[in-house]
Design brief:
alpha/beta, Pyruvate-ferredoxin Oxidoreductase, domain 3, 4 domains, about 35% helix, eight-stranded mixed sheet
């Protein structure tokens, strides 16, 4: 199988992310499936930024330990990543800053000759990389013109100067795969919400969820949605609940620290039975923690957030393809079951870039919420067999739509009577049972790897890609719950048939999925954990699995 890994590095402000995206598109046009990982400190300028672009003939969702090409915009890039180099690694560098680079490009002279700004220095390195990798100029030209239409001619002039300096040195073979759209996890979430009928997205910027806000703000006119950036996270959830009360499908995005401020609003949604979708993209905590690095440490928080007892759905997609599907599903379920629905992701998925197969992006849009039939009197909290009350919205003729955070009767009138309290509590419990019944129709647990292996990896979220590759190399089974609430215990137990050794793989220090599974009677034999903010690589995980024994 053909594959290639490219690292491009420099300091914040050098355009590393956009340069990485261009390299990804070059590989995409050669037929490779893409995963791009972007690493950066919490600095506006300075620090060391780098991107690793991995292209493979099959779908990938993680990086490996080695790189085949290094595009170095400064000396620090060369020094920082020595453990990733092999004897075949090709170095393309800015000769003005790196004196010993094997393929040095006189970036300053090229920019001066073309009268180009400093930021276009990365176009010179991309041009040099393309020639060294044997990528035809026609491909470079097409990629630049499509993905940077503004200033494409000048960027191409800079790239061509560097392209003409070298001979091919390590050819990247073409694949028979057709190119596919490249999207970040955040973009896939945004698209999934739109497919689910999103009317309003409300968010206060917080890494790593901010990309959803930026993407939807850019696309709001195209899709006819409202995008709002309020003054803080408390305003975010209350405004989103206001939209939903008025009949508009709303979603919010945040990370753990922002979600902390939203928990009272979450409980309001539970008591008032207002549907809402919450995207919580995890990063390393507690508190500010590592704001630009990844983690899976908020599962237990999201499971138990908010005072009181009320139903909620939590899904944890494993890549952009699943993020698209499950974001759409979350919107449908929130409104079908009149409850909060969480999309729990992390920095690795949110800010990673993946190949997306449009043919696999099936629409799961449901029949919509249970609506009032117009019979008078309207009771917002009518006690029904399923626990679901017909919905009406302000402005509906003959309907007084009263939602209430207090204990209330069927009409929404505040009540502290014991009998009414029991009735309404049981009503919400019936709604939880209805949610469990609805989720039986979804593939809440996915399996991959060797189906009859007696050793299995149990994982969730973005570690999907690395677990699947490690399992393929070691001959293991992978069991991955995508739905985390209601916990699909029956489906997990069925998937565990024949498994004698179960190894949990998570990116947190307390093994939060393991704790959830053990609460339901599942026996965990080993736990492989990482909690330094960096994702597992294939080689890392294979080594760790061998250490615990298979």
């Amino acid at each position: 199988m053909n594959e290639v890994s490219v690292l491009i590095g420099g300091k914040a402000g050098d355009g590393i992310n956009s340069a990485g995206a261009m390299v990804a598109q070059l590989l995409n046009h050669l037929g490779y499936r893409i995963y791009l990982y972007f690493d950066y400190p919490s600095l506006i300028r300075g620090g060391h930024n780098f991107a690793i672009i991995r292209g493979s003939e099959r779908d990938v969702g993680t990086c490996r330990n080695h790189v085949d090409f290094v595009l170095a915009l400064n000396e620090e890039t060369i020094e920082r990543h020595k453990e990733k180099y092999t004897q075949k690694t090709v170095f393309i560098s800015n000769r003005d800053l790196i004196k010993n680079g094997a393929y040095g490009i006189p970036v300053k002279a090229i920019l001066a000759e073309e009268k180009a700004p400093v930021i276009m220095g990365n176009s010179a390195l991309i041009g040099g990389f393309a020639k060294a990798a044997g990528i035809e100029w026609e491909v470079v030209d097409a990629v630049f013109r499509r993905h940077i239409p503004k200033g494409a001619d000048l960027n191409l002039a800079v790239a061509k100067k560097a392209f003409d300096l070298f001979d091919p040195v390590q050819l990247i073979k073409k694949s028979e795969n057709p190119p596919q759209p490249l999207v970040s996890g955040n973009e896939a979430i945004g698209l999934g919400l739109i497919r689910g009928g999103l009317d309003a997205y409300v968010s206060y910027p917080m890494t790593p969820s901010s990309g959803i806000l930026h993407f939807l703000a850019e696309q709001k006119e195209r899709f006819g949605i409202t995008v709002v950036h309020p003054e803080n996270e408390i305003a975010v959830i209350l405004m989103a609940l206001g939209f939903a009360y008025a009949g508009k499908k709303s979603a919010i995005g945040t990370s753990g620290g922002g979600f902390c401020l939203m928990t009272e609003g979450l409980s309001l949604a539970g008591m008032a039975e207002i549907p809402i979708v919450l995207v919580v993209s995890q990063r390393t905590g507690p508190s500010t923690g590592l704001p630009t690095y990844t983690g899976q440490s908020d599962l237990q928080f999201v499971l138990h957030a908010g005072q009181g007892e009320f139903p909620r759905m939590i899904v944890a997609p494993g890549d952009a393809q699943e993020a698209l599907l499950w974001s759409e599903t979350a919107m449908d379920i929130a409104w079908k079951c009149q409850c909060p629905a969480f999309i729990l992701v992390d920095k690795t998925l949110s800010e990673g870039t993946y190949s997306l197969d449009p043919a696999a992006a099936r629409n799961t849009y449901g029949a919509g919420p249970l609506l009032w039939d117009g019979k008078i009197p309207y009771r917002r909290y009518e006690d029904t067999a399923s626990g679901l009350s017909p919905m009406a919205f302000p402005g509906a003729k003959d309907a007084v739509v009263k939602v209430n955070s207090y204990m209330h009767d069927e009409a929404g009138i505040t009540a502290e009577d014991a009998e009414i309290s029991n009735q309404m509590t049981k009503k919400r419990l019936k709604k939880w049972e209805y949610l469990i019944e609805v989720m039986q129709g979804y593939p809440g647990v996915l399996q991959s790897g060797k189906s009859d292996a007696s050793t299995a990896l149990l994982c969730w979220g973005s570690v999907k890609g690395v677990c699947e590759e490690a399992a393929a190399e070691l001959g293991l089974r992978v069991i991955r719950p995508v739905v985390l609430a209601p916990f699909p215990i029956d489906k997990i137990q069925k998937a565990l048939m024949g498994v004698k050794r179960l190894i949990v793989v998570e990116e947190n220090v307390t093994a939060q999925l393991a704790a959830l599974a053990e609460r339901h009677g599942i026996i965990i034999h080993e736990k492989i954990l990482r909690y330094d903010g960096r994702p597992f690589t294939v080689e890392d995980l294979v080594s760790r699995v061998k250490e615990v024994g298979i």
